[in-house]
């Protein structure tokens, strides 16, 4: 077994010039800036077992040393190990570092520095967790113990943190200054003469006492004026240490008053650093368990540290802990490393080059998404010039907006003006009048539709008066297109009899056509909606055709989408009440009015559908190909907070319309989604899915691809007049948001929206509890070969990832955070189409997992990688909750077996075992999309952890359960299932379709005589139970226990005459198989007489075993054949994955992180 | 989570309140005693990292109160009286850095178990000038940070600090019980303990959650290696204090070929203790609405409120500033 890849906490970070060094588990990673992003150059294993907890760079090469100058080094440490690497090697991808060269230290290292790092004999000072300083001379010719020198400690106590530095105030001094944070909340400052002389001088200089909890981080300012400490008590404290250190003869001071205290972190603070300490200003940066990093400024008058900037939301939202932080040397960029494996970059405010705005050279990195807001009071822009005599001047207020690309917009005003603003123009030329039509005063119907001419985007703008007449104008980003006639004298066309309530232009149908469609609605529910087909003729907009669409009951239109198919148009409409309606409009039809051919209600709960579009280019089938069903990819957004990806399927006769959900996203950051865009980012050459919407007072742009908020702006909420659009040019990721606030017009430009601040993508923010790989499909050549790794964690999220075929890295695809409790178990259906998940408070969910959701009309090409939108996940159903009186009722174990009907898949048998010792068996009906209770029962009173079904050769169904009492129980559930209509047919479960729909029957209760066997195998918790069938139909049960044992049991299940089933079991218990609890077992192969399996435990060992299978397992031989350490604490789950060629295999080991092993 | 729902989730939490223990961990020691008969013939016992004091409560009830109760038993009475005459009075010394509410029959000392001055203090309260303690127990654990290697290291240091003190006070043949985290390096700890004790067992009481990494090492029959000189000035395995220590601190302790451990380090045998009929700390229980007397069950208050957390002031600050309990950015 060999380690191939790792995902887990980032425990150390350091900048080496522009490059970033990251300690990721035992691996060192080097990232270099390329273009606008940091890219991984290489990674190397530094330690055998330790994580890299600290990185220290020796002083840079001194140029006047000439070519002979000795080389500087880099120091890396973790636990009781360290390594010294020549600095020049660090940027060399063929770095010859070997984890076998790690150097053992005599104690746990908290901080280490070079005393000097030139030449072959670098010298290092180490401060340990026992407040002891040890010097190490890197002279490989002397024996290891002789390379160390131990100095006496002024006070031996346990530390959580320490900082050492050579006294910089006295150059070439041998005085080492140490600052120590103890587990009991004290901060100790002490000095040490670190010369080679025999006389050892050490003294405690000061004791800083005011923290109310363990001190997790300490730091000293470069010129020894200040010290900072941070603690369990959620505070940062700043101390004056001027003159305290350095003099080893003074008595120990006791300081109880810090210079300043900083409050603001919501959880423990792990580290603090000085950003600035010169002159009057002191600035600190801290990082915390609460997933934020904060910058603090010292306010002398209030004796406080004021938080001036907070970095948040780039690490896994429901996780914990930023473990590491580094600031680059200009001091304008900081990076944080999380428990979630993520590395995020942040711009520090107030640094000199941070104030650059607007234009930048192409080589410059986009520093972040920038937001520029302009506010216009129309009364100032357009002073009232002509007021008709005798009339009161009308107050000029913005009314409705149409954003045209990313820098210009149109605006109607309360008084009847149509105005144009171009933000790219100089201040005096920003605004232009387009026309003044008093009859449009306060009209709500104003909108625009896009069309393309030779790839250039243009608009048809529709504007209504209050009597139902419309004016259509052609414009582009630069304003009104010149037309043969003066716009003022254009024709107003009557579209409806009363005052129109709105004009809704169709969203982008993706076909790049010049056609523009719009729906005109009125305030009368019984009046049909007019669907307009607009084109440009003789350089002006004309209505090509009009149809009347009947409005279904309670169906106020909010948005439409129109497709041109074979000799017809299909119009899909969304309503204010969450519904979709579809209209089929054949070209030849002479109908007066069209009724919807299909209506779907509650697509977005009961909330407004805000947009409809296609999520990929839709190419209608050619006219020759009219026999095939048509599949149209549709994305809809709603105020329900969802963005849904649908597949609309239409049969060849245009009579059957089906709508299926392929992927559903509820981004927590955007509870009211308004639209979904696909932007192409130049930086990473990838498509980014951006959702726009509102959260409370904020307008939010959410980058669904990166899983982060791109930008947000306080606009005082979404219930106002506003419009948003992105740039029309394909490679621009800037957008324009225009809105009214306090009767003023606000125009906000967002640039670099797809800027990716993530250097390494985040994974679970807390430990994994379950890991399941989707089953292999029979056809490895199909796209669905890609096996999906589902992981569930204590952070309540389920993540879907895949293993990259070349790098073996785990690549995240999508995340679902619907569970409100930590995930307990995950099980795939045997077809890989469904995933079942369980948590506490009886949460059991069924997820539909859709592959290849990109509906391709081109040749079936194999993707090189999966992208986030090639897998869709929809929460299909939740299991009903049986009690509210047990708030902690955990569903600890799940098992799922496919049930077939006469026409294939009917559903699944779902077994659930729970912490109150109860067992539940439900049937999951895939047509009805619901759980139907079949049977229930109770084991004893102890917590159950495992459940497993097995269909045996005789046609019986047995269920295995195991729990905290160490017993394994075998139940005969054949009769229980057949009582509910599920029988065994040719080795699978079978039921009639009618049965599947029978709901009303009360669940069958288990009887105690159904227990075929109840036998203790382990002393306490059975952490793992797996069952395999060996050649002659016998079963082998493998269990792993908290008692450190692995047990291999052989079961013979036979039908006894008239008495149901008989079970014989013999077991072999391997005690002390691991040094601690055995949490997972994975079977590699099973034959008639032998078995290969892998066990893993909390001791972080993964062991490969070979077992001989004999009739009486007591005599069996079970031996370890391979053993490897993994950098994953708290191992909770493992899974096997076959590589594409079917030969190479990978073992995924999940716990605090994931390690991928090659077998 | 409210008191009542915690009662259902955690049966030992509820039991501790009902039986007057300061913490649920009392049951861990009771179950360890039931398995190993730890309190047999014990008259001098030291409880390390004792606060809030539930183990001292168990010791006090088992070693002092129990003797008084058994006076009612005529047969035992004679034996007890003889025993009490033959043996000196029971001495229980409890140490912690945190202050601890006094307990009857328990000498509570606020002291650092690693500090050399603690040893004479303990001996003085034991009214002894030699190492004659029968049992040393330690339930100490750090507040875990979430960095597993660091947490396991700190816990191991607490255990080794307790071991160092134990080597100074235990009589030959005495016993030592301490909390241990069964993590990646636990086998090295087992080996270290095995050097000092005839029998080392790792025990998991049923009152300790299955999902928790904690267990207890029960080390029986103290028998230090020949020539070993216990000292808190020069403690072993807790980092070097002088140059001579370096070699030993770099070397890893491993005991091979003891009791045929398959490959690598020796692993202590495991015992789950506490009867299966006892409460399962991982199970969720539906509690009856009324007790056996038909009185509506009420959730009791804890015997002792939990010690003030280090972030208590931070919470007060937030409350004062309002803002929904959060400090503005």
TrEMBL record, chain A:
<keyword id="KW-0963">Cytoplasm</keyword>
<dbReference type="InterPro" id="IPR051973">
    <property type="entry name" value="tRNA_Anticodon_Mtase-Reg"/>
</dbReference>
<feature type="repeat" description="WD">
    <location>
        <begin position="208"/>
        <end position="241"/>
    </location>
</feature>
<dbReference type="GO" id="GO:0030488">
    <property type="term" value="P:tRNA methylation"/>
</dbReference>
<dbReference type="InterPro" id="IPR001680">
    <property type="entry name" value="WD40_rpt"/>
</dbReference>
<keyword id="KW-0677">Repeat</keyword>
<dbReference type="InterPro" id="IPR015943">
    <property type="entry name" value="WD40/YVTN_repeat-like_dom_sf"/>
</dbReference>
<dbReference type="InterPro" id="IPR019775">
    <property type="entry name" value="WD40_repeat_CS"/>
</dbReference>
<dbReference type="InterPro" id="IPR036322">
    <property type="entry name" value="WD40_repeat_dom_sf"/>
</dbReference>
<keyword id="KW-0819">tRNA processing</keyword>
<comment type="similarity">
    <text>Belongs to the WD repeat WDR6 family.</text>
</comment>
<dbReference type="GO" id="GO:0005737">
    <property type="term" value="C:cytoplasm"/>
</dbReference>
<dbReference type="Pfam" id="PF00400">
    <property type="entry name" value="WD40"/>
</dbReference>
<protein>
    <submittedName>
        <fullName>Uncharacterized protein</fullName>
    </submittedName>
</protein>
<keyword id="KW-0853">WD repeat</keyword>
UniProtKB/TrEMBL annotation, chain B:
<dbReference type="InterPro" id="IPR029063">
    <property type="entry name" value="SAM-dependent_MTases_sf"/>
</dbReference>
<dbReference type="GO" id="GO:0005737">
    <property type="term" value="C:cytoplasm"/>
</dbReference>
<feature type="binding site">
    <location>
        <position position="53"/>
    </location>
    <ligand>
        <name>S-adenosyl-L-methionine</name>
    </ligand>
</feature>
<feature type="binding site">
    <location>
        <position position="112"/>
    </location>
    <ligand>
        <name>S-adenosyl-L-methionine</name>
    </ligand>
</feature>
<dbReference type="InterPro" id="IPR002877">
    <property type="entry name" value="RNA_MeTrfase_FtsJ_dom"/>
</dbReference>
<feature type="binding site">
    <location>
        <position position="139"/>
    </location>
    <ligand>
        <name>S-adenosyl-L-methionine</name>
    </ligand>
</feature>
<comment type="function">
    <text>Methylates the 2'-O-ribose of nucleotides at positions 32 and 34 of the tRNA anticodon loop of substrate tRNAs.</text>
</comment>
<feature type="domain" description="Ribosomal RNA methyltransferase FtsJ">
    <location>
        <begin position="21"/>
        <end position="222"/>
    </location>
</feature>
<feature type="active site" description="Proton acceptor">
    <location>
        <position position="179"/>
    </location>
</feature>
<feature type="binding site">
    <location>
        <position position="96"/>
    </location>
    <ligand>
        <name>S-adenosyl-L-methionine</name>
    </ligand>
</feature>
<dbReference type="InterPro" id="IPR015507">
    <property type="entry name" value="rRNA-MeTfrase_E"/>
</dbReference>
<protein>
    <recommendedName>
        <fullName>Putative tRNA (cytidine(32)/guanosine(34)-2'-O)-methyltransferase</fullName>
        <ecNumber>2.1.1.205</ecNumber>
    </recommendedName>
</protein>
<feature type="binding site">
    <location>
        <position position="55"/>
    </location>
    <ligand>
        <name>S-adenosyl-L-methionine</name>
    </ligand>
</feature>
<keyword id="KW-0963">Cytoplasm</keyword>
<comment type="similarity">
    <text>Belongs to the class I-like SAM-binding methyltransferase superfamily. RNA methyltransferase RlmE family. TRM7 subfamily.</text>
</comment>
<dbReference type="InterPro" id="IPR050082">
    <property type="entry name" value="RNA_methyltr_RlmE"/>
</dbReference>
<dbReference type="GO" id="GO:0002181">
    <property type="term" value="P:cytoplasmic translation"/>
</dbReference>
<keyword id="KW-0808">Transferase</keyword>
<dbReference type="Pfam" id="PF01728">
    <property type="entry name" value="FtsJ"/>
</dbReference>
<keyword id="KW-0819">tRNA processing</keyword>
<dbReference type="GO" id="GO:0002128">
    <property type="term" value="P:tRNA nucleoside ribose methylation"/>
</dbReference>
<keyword id="KW-0949">S-adenosyl-L-methionine</keyword>
């Amino acid at each position: 077994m060999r380690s191939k890849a790792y995902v887990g906490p980032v425990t150390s970070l350091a900048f080496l010039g522009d490059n970033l060094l990251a300690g990721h588990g035992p691996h060192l990673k080097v990232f270099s800036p390329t273009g606008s992003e940091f890219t991984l150059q290489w990674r190397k294993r530094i330690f055998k077992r330790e994580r890299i907890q600290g990185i220290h760079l020796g002083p840079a090469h001194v140029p006047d040393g000439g070519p002979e100058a000795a080389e500087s080094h880099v120091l890396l440490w973790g636990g009781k190990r360290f390594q010294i690497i020549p600095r020049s090697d660090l940027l060399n991808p063929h770095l010859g570092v070997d984890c076998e060269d790690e150097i053992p230290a005599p104690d746990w290292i908290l901080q280490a520095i070079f005393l000097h790092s030139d030449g072959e004999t670098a010298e290092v000072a180490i401060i340990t967790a026992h407040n002891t300083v040890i010097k190490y001379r890197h002279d490989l010719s002397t024996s290891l113990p002789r390379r160390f020198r131990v100095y006496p400690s002024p006070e031996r106590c346990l530390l959580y943190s320490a900082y050492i530095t050579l006294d910089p105030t006295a150059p070439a001094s041998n005085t080492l200054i140490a600052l120590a944070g103890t587990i009991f909340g004290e901060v100790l400052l002490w000095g040490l003469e670190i010369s080679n002389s025999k006389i050892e001088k050490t003294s405690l200089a000061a004791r800083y006492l005011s923290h109310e909890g363990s001190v997790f981080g300490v730091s000293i300012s470069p010129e020894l004026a200040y010290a900072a400490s941070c603690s369990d008590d959620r505070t940062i404290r700043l101390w004056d240490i001027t003159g305290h250190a350095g003099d080893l003869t003074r008595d120990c001071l006791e300081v109880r008053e810090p210079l300043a205290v900083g409050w603001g972190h919501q959880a423990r603070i792990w580290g603090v650093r000085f950003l600035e300490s010169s002159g009057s200003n002191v600035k600190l940066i801290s990082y915390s368990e609460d997933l934020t990093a904060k910058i603090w400024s010292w306010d002398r008058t209030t004796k406080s540290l004021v938080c001036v900037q907070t970095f948040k939301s780039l690490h896994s939202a429901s996780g914990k802990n930023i473990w590491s932080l580094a600031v680059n040397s200009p001091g304008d960029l900081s990076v944080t490393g999380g428990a979630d494996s993520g590395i995020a970059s942040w711009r520090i405010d107030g640094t000199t080059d941070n104030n650059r705005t607007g234009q930048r050279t192409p080589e410059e990195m986009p520093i972040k998404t920038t937001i520029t807001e302009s506010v216009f009071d129309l009364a100032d822009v357009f002073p009232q010039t002509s007021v008709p005599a005798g009339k009161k001047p009308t107050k000029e207020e913005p009314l409705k907006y149409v954003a045209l690309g990313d820098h210009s917009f149109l605006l109607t005003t309360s008084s009847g003006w149509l105005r144009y603003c171009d933000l790219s123009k100089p201040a005096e030329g920003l605004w232009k009048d387009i026309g003044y039509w008093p009859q449009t005063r306060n009209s709500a119907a104003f909108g625009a539709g896009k069309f393309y001419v030779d790839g250039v985007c243009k608009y048809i703008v529709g504007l209504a008066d209050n009597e139902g007449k419309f004016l259509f104008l052609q414009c582009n980003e630069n304003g009104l297109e010149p037309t043969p006639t003066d716009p003022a004298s254009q024709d107003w066309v009557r579209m409806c009899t009363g005052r129109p309530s709105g004009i809704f232009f169709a969203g982008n149908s993706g076909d790049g056509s010049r056609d523009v469609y719009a729906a005109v609605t009125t305030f009368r529910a019984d009046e049909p909606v007019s669907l307009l087909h607009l084109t440009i003729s003789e350089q002006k907009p004309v209505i090509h055709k009009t149809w009347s669409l009947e409005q279904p009951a309670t169906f106020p239109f909010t948005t439409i989408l129109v497709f041109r198919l074979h000799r017809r148009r299909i119009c899909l409409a969304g309503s204010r009440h969450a519904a979709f309606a579809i209209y089929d409009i054949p070209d030849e039809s002479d109908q007066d009015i069209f009724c919807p051919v299909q209506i779907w209600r509650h697509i977005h709960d009961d909330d407004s559908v805000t947009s409809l579009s296609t999520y990929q280019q839709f190419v209608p089938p050619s006219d020759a190909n009219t026999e095939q069903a048509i599949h149209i990819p549709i994305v809809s957004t709603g105020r329900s907070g969802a963005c849904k990806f649908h597949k609309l399927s239409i049969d060849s006769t245009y009579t059957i319309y089906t709508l299926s959900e392929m992927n559903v996203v509820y981004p927590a950051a955007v509870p009211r989604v308004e639209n979904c865009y696909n932007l192409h980012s130049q930086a990473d050459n990838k498509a980014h899915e951006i959702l726009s919407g509102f959260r409370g007072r904020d307008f939010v742009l959410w980058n669904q691809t990166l899983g982060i908020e791109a930008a947000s702006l306080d606009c005082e909420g979404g219930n106002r007049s506003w419009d948003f659009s992105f740039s029309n040019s394909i490679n621009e990721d800037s957008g324009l948001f225009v809105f009214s606030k306090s009767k003023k017009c606000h125009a906000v430009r967002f640039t670099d929206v797809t800027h990716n601040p993530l250097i390494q993508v985040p994974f679970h923010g807390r430990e994994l509890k379950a890991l399941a790989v989707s089953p292999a499909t029979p056809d490895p050549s199909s796209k669905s070969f890609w096996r999906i790794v589902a992981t569930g964690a204590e952070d309540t999220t389920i993540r879907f990832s895949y293993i990259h075929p070349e790098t073996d890295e785990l690549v995240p695809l999508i995340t679902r955070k619907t569970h409100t409790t930590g995930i307990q178990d995950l099980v795939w259906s045997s077809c890989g189409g469904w995933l079942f998940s369980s948590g506490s408070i009886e949460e059991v969910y069924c997820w539909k997992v859709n592959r290849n959701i990109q509906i391709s009309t081109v040749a079936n090409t194999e993707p090189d990688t999966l992208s986030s939108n090639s897998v869709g996940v929809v929460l299909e159903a939740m299991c009903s909750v049986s009690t509210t009186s047990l708030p902690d009722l955990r569903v600890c174990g799940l098992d799922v077996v496919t049930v077939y009907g006469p026409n294939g898949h009917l559903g699944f048998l779902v077994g659930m075992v729970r912490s109150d010792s109860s067992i539940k068996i439900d049937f999951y009906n895939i047509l009805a999309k619901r759980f139907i209770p079949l049977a229930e029962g109770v084991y004893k009173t102890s917590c159950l952890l495992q459940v497993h079904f097995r269909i045996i050769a005789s046609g019986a169904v047995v269920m295995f359960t195991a729990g905290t009492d160490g017993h394994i129980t075998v139940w005969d559930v054949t009769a229980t299932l057949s009582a509910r209509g599920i029988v065994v047919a040719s080795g699978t479960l079978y039921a009639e379709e009618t049965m599947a729909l029978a709901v009303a029957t009360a669940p069958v209760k288990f009887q105690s005589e159904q227990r075929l066997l109840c036998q203790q195998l382990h002393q306490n918790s059975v952490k793992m139970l797996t069952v395999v069938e060996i050649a002659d139909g016998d079963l082998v049960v493998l269990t792993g226990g908290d008692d450190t044992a692995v047990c291999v049991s052989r079961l013979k299940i036979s039908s006894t005459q008239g008495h149901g089933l008989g079970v014989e079991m013999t077991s072999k218990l391997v005690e002390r198989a691991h040094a601690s609890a055995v949490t997972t077992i994975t079977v590699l192969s099973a034959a008639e007489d032998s078995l290969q399996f892998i066990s893993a435990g909390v001791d972080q060992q993964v062991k490969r075993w070979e077992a001989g299978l004999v009739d009486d397992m007591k005599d069996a031989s079970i031996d370890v054949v391979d053993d490897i350490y993994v950098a994953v604490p708290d191992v909770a789950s493992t899974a096997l994955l076959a590589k594409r060629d079917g030969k190479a295999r990978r073992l995924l080991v999940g716990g605090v992180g994931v390690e991928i092993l090659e077998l | 989570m409210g008191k009542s729902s915690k009662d259902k989730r955690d049966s030992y939490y509820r039991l501790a309140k009902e039986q007057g223990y300061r913490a649920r961990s009392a049951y861990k020691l009771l179950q360890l005693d039931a398995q190993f008969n730890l309190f047999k013939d014990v008259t001098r016992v030291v409880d390390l990292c004792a606060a809030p004091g539930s183990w001292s409560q168990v010791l006090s009830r088992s070693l002092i109160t129990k003797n008084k109760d058994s006076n009612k038993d005529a047969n035992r009475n004679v034996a007890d009286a003889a025993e009490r005459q033959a043996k000196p009075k029971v001495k229980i010394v409890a140490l912690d850095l945190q202050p601890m509410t006094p307990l009857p029959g328990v000498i509570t000392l606020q002291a650092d178990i690693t500090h050399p001055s603690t040893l004479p203090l303990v001996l003085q309260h034991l009214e002894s000038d030699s190492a004659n303690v029968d049992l040393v127990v330690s339930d100490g654990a750090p507040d875990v940070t979430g960095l597993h290697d660091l947490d396991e290291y700190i816990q191991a240091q607490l255990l080794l600090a307790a071991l160092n003190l134990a080597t100074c006070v235990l009589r030959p043949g005495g016993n030592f019980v301490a909390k241990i985290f069964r993590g990646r390096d636990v086998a090295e700890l087992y080996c270290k303990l095995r050097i000092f004790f005839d029998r080392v067992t790792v025990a998991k009481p049923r009152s300790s959650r299955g999902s928790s990494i904690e267990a207890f090492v029960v080390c029986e029959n103290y028998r230090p290696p020949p020539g070993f000189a216990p000292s808190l000035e020069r403690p072993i395995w807790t980092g070097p204090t002088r140059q001579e220590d370096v070699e030993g601190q770099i070397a890893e302790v491993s005991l091979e070929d003891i009791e045929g451990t398959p490959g690598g380090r020796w692993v202590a045998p495991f015992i789950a203790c506490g009867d299966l009929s006892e409460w399962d700390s991982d199970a969720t229980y539906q509690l009856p609405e009324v007790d056996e007397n038909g009185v509506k069950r009420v959730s009791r208050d804890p015997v002792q409120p939990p010690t003030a957390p280090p972030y208590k002031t931070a919470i007060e600050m937030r409350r004062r500033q309002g803002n929904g309990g959060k400090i503005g950015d």
